[in-house]
Amino acid sequence: MASVQLNGSSLVASLSPNHSFSHKTKLCNLKPSFLRSRHNATRLSRAKTIRAISTAPASQPSVADEPVDEPPAVDFAFVHSVLLPDGTPDVHWRRACGGQKLRDIMLDSNIELYGPYSKPLSNCAGVGTCATCMVEIVNGKELLNPRTDIEKEKLKRKPKNWRLACQTKVGNPDSTGLVVIQQLPEWKAHEWNIPKNLPNDDDSETST
């Protein structure tokens, strides 16, 4: 079976109808005396006929390109705590479906979350007891759930826009929008202002 990918979309056309091709040749067992006769030679040429059992199917029309609707997703701009060599923020763009914990989205997208606490047994693995997964919500807080009781206790001396990624749920499966997040806010050694019009990164990666 062969398949053809159409323009990078999930639309795949299968081009393998189950056709079988078989041909039979009808031959006769002839004696030498029979072959010497011209008349019989004519009959022999008629006997050696090929009968087609099935034929090749007619060429099928090419499958037209069909637009594929992408599922709803939330865009993320993760800003690292260290600036780039030219002094500009180091922004990493990602895209993920809503309804997930921010911690899971960051880890699945290879975004640094724990900093010096990333080693095994250095964090609580997402149960909310260590408070090492702190992030700063710069933009898009309306897409997030309110602070949980755990966050209110662990972050009572932190700015109101600081969250624990393990306690933060990003919208619903049908949510769309943009969330800008400062990674490792405790280790941030610079200040920056969010641009009015953030660029749309074509290299965004999707996490499910």
TrEMBL record:
Residues 123-170 form the 2Fe-2S ferredoxin-type domain. GO terms for biological process: P450-containing electron transport chain; photosynthetic electron transport in photosystem I. Keywords: 2Fe-2S, Iron, Iron-sulfur, Metal-binding. CDD domains: fer2. GO terms for molecular function: 2 iron, 2 sulfur cluster binding; electron transfer activity; metal ion binding. The keyword Secreted does not apply. InterPro entries: 2Fe-2S_ferredoxin-like_sf, 2Fe-2S_ferredoxin-type, Adrenodoxin-like, Beta-grasp_dom_sf. GO terms for cellular component: chloroplast thylakoid membrane; NAD(P)H dehydrogenase complex (plastoquinone). Pfam families: Fer2. The keyword Cell cycle does not apply. Gene3D superfamilies: 3.10.20.30. This is 2Fe-2S ferredoxin-type domain-containing protein. It comes from Eutrema salsugineum (Saltwater cress).
